[in-house]
Amino acid sequence: VKRKARQIELPETERIRINKSGCLGRCEHGPVAVVYPGGVWYRYRTKEDLDEILSEHVAKGKIVERLLVRDVECEQ
Question: Where is pLDDT greater, at 43 or 12?
Answer without folding.
Answer: 43
